[in-house]
Design a protein that fits this description.
Length: 446
């Protein structure tokens, strides 16, 4: 590993890089607009302990399993700065009343039905009506995928750079990804965390959906890992710790992410992580069934189409940590089917250079036994944060970005620097198409 790629990590040190020069502006607003910092980030908000029994048996009512298989969404390359504008917290909490059917036998007592309230932040979920294609100048392609591509764009109003994720409606319909796409929009609109991507708004034309994101200049963690081959223990620990806080935040709001991998982790200009691409994320209070994700990172209970809960993300975290330390995933094979077979067999071979604390942590994350998997036990995510491998991490400082990053991307901020992204062939764009929209009914909130 070359010194110019990764410098020594002081995991309890102070970060003397100032973030005050990184201003945050919406694409459509003028330069003198005022902002307020994110509220409540001084201390991490940890999830309350789960029920006192281990979550092994997932007892759920009999219901039809959702159909369809997940397919990889287009990757977002989009960078969230250090402060956020005020969001209008005008989402109304509605009290739902259930009418029980009339019973012919008066002695039958109807038990009240409990409706579980959404734990998503109570903010407006409206993302449309603020931007149009005319508000941006398209510069170049940052990434491509199954449903479209991501562009670097520049606001014609404030001159700043953003990323726009474009999804083709016809392809979404063809691949039966309507629900996933609408879920992605809704969750990105309300989540707010230092290590998650931010979406400013959405719009659409007759053929495409557009999602306006922050532009993340530092590139993918995947690219850095490939250049480095593998990360030293302290470096992998730093990135894993930031990812842990982000996943814990999502789980505290009943969101399963379901696609944790280095390609979906971007690095901002200072080297902090930003988890992107919520194409497979879903709000789930109990369990779900859908088979989706990336083969190397999928938990065994997902492969076997059993009902699964949020603990599948902690399995994926274990795979991610293993990959950062080893340079490869533990169940890799030439075909997805062979990879699935290895996952179900569950045999993990740890390299001899792994620290014993890392081996212990990974053994407790990459396990099919839900009575042993950390994050799924009585203490929830605190079992992961309190593991000896993370012993020197000061979580409050990490959440406040008051810890020196192990790698600062060699980019120039504020000029749309794309030197850390691959080049893609540009194609003639059909954006702005008018006329009849045969798909309008499916994407009314865009």
């Amino acid at each position: 590993m070359t010194p110019n790629i990764l410098k020594k990590l002081h995991i309890t040190g102070n970060n003397n890089k100032s973030n005050t020069t990184s201003t945050n502006q919406q694409p459509y607003q003028s330069e003198n607009m005022e902002y307020q910092p994110i509220q409540g980030q001084g201390q991490p908000q940890y999830q309350q302990p789960q029920p006192q029994h281990v979550q092994q048996q997932l007892n759920v009512p009999q219901q039809q399993q959702p159909g369809g298989y997940g397919v990889a969404q287009v990757q977002q390359h989009g960078i969230s700065r250090e402060t956020s504008p005020n969001f209008a917290a005008n989402a109304e909490t509605q009290t739902q009343q259930i009418q029980t059917p009339h019973q012919s036998q008066p002695q039958t007592i109807q038990q009240p039905i409990t409706i579980e309230q959404s734990l998503l932040p109570q903010k407006s979920t409206v993302s449309k009506g603020k931007y149009t294609l005319n508000d941006f100048q398209i510069m170049r392609t940052l990434g491509t995928g199954s449903f479209g591509r991501v562009h670097l764009v520049r606001s014609v109003h404030n001159g700043r750079y953003y990323a726009i994720k474009v999804l083709k409606k016809a392809q979404i319909i063809r691949m039966k990804q309507i629900e996933h796409t609408n879920d992605e929009r809704r969750m990105l609109k309300v989540v707010e965390h230092p290590f998650l991507i931010r979406m400013w708004g959405t719009f659409q034309d007759a053929r495409n959906l557009f999602m306006v994101m922050d532009y993340i200049e530092g590139g993918e963690l995947f690219s850095l890992l490939r250049k480095s081959q593998r990360f030293p223990n302290p470096v992998a620990k730093f990135y894993a710790a930031e990812v842990t806080l982000a996943v814990e935040y999502l789980h505290a709001h009943n969101i399963i992410y379901r696609d944790l991998k280095p390609e979906n982790i971007l690095l901002d200009r200072n080297g902090h992580v930003k988890i992107t691409d919520f194409g497979f994320a879903k709000e789930v209070s109990t369990v779900t069934w859908t088979l989706c994700g990336t083969p190397d990172y999928i938990a065994p209970e997902v492969i076997t189409t059993k009902p699964y809960n949020k603990s599948v993300d902690w399995w994926s975290l274990g795979i991610l940590i293993f990959e950062m330390l080893a340079g490869y995933t533990p169940f890799y094979d030439s075909t997805p089917m062979k990879t699935y077979q290895k996952i179900l067999a569950g045999k993990v071979h740890f390299p001899s250079f792994f620290h014993q604390d890392a081996v212990d942590l990974l053994s407790r994350l990459i396990t099919a036994d839900l009575t042993r998997r950390l994050g799924n036990l009585h203490n929830g995510p605190s079992d992961i944060r309190n593991h000896p491998w993370f012993a020197e991490v000061i979580w409050e400082k990490l959440l406040a970005k008051d810890i020196e990053t192990p790698y600062e991307p060699p980019i120039t901020g504020g000029i749309g620097d794309t030197s850390l992204f691959d080049h893609y062939p540009e194609e003639q764009l059909d954006y702005g198409a008018g006329g009849e929209d045969p798909y309008a009914q499916y994407f009314v909130d865009f």
